[in-house]
């Protein structure tokens, strides 16, 4: 029987790795959360805008309903209802996430929307949808961070805020 042995790591390189890990540990949660909030807002808000009739803020366009009838074809929901729910979810959840109000709820909502898109609409586009899901789950788990309305409200009400 052959025995495999591994050389001990060079102490100098191990120290360098530890220092690098220490530098990464300094990246603040609020920065990651802020970037995730902006990224998700950008994707979902502009998707909602493509569903809106010209010259309106929230009136669903005929072309959006057509897409849900002919291309998206979600199971269990009539196309017009699905189009209205998508417009509502993309609009409301993206605004909540951007300003950091009910960030965990908004993140969970956007995660659910991305999951539906991945599973039922464009299953081959996981390389696009997985980063959205990661950002949304991060916000659902950790919240919007120090620079969010959630944190501001917590400070005003005297609640202890934990920023992971």
TrEMBL record:
Keywords: Cell membrane, Membrane, Transmembrane, Transmembrane helix. The chain crosses the membrane at residues 20-40, 105-123, 129-153. It comes from the Bacteria. GO terms for cellular component: plasma membrane. It is a multi-pass membrane protein. It is found in: Cell membrane. Belongs to the DoxX family. This is DoxX family protein.
């Amino acid at each position: 029987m052959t025995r495999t042995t591994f050389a001990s790591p060079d102490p100098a390189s191990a120290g360098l790795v530890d220092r690098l890990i220490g530098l990464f540990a300094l990246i603040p949660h609020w920065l990651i959360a802020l970037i995730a909030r902006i990224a998700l807002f950008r994707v979902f808000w502009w998707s909602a805008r493509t569903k809106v009739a010209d010259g309106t803020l929230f009136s669903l366009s005929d072309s959006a309903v057509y897409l849900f009838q002919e291309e998206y074809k979600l199971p269990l929901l009539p196309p017009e209802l699905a189009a209205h729910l998508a417009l509502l979810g993309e609009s409301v959840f993206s605004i909540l996430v951007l300003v950091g109000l009910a960030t965990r709820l908004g993140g969970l909502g956007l995660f659910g929307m991305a999951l539906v898109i991945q599973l039922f609409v464009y299953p081959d586009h996981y390389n696009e949808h997985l980063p959205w899901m990661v950002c949304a789950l991060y916000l659902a788990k950790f919240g919007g961070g120090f620079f969010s309305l959630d944190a501001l409200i917590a400070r005003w009400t005297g609640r202890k805020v934990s920023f992971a």
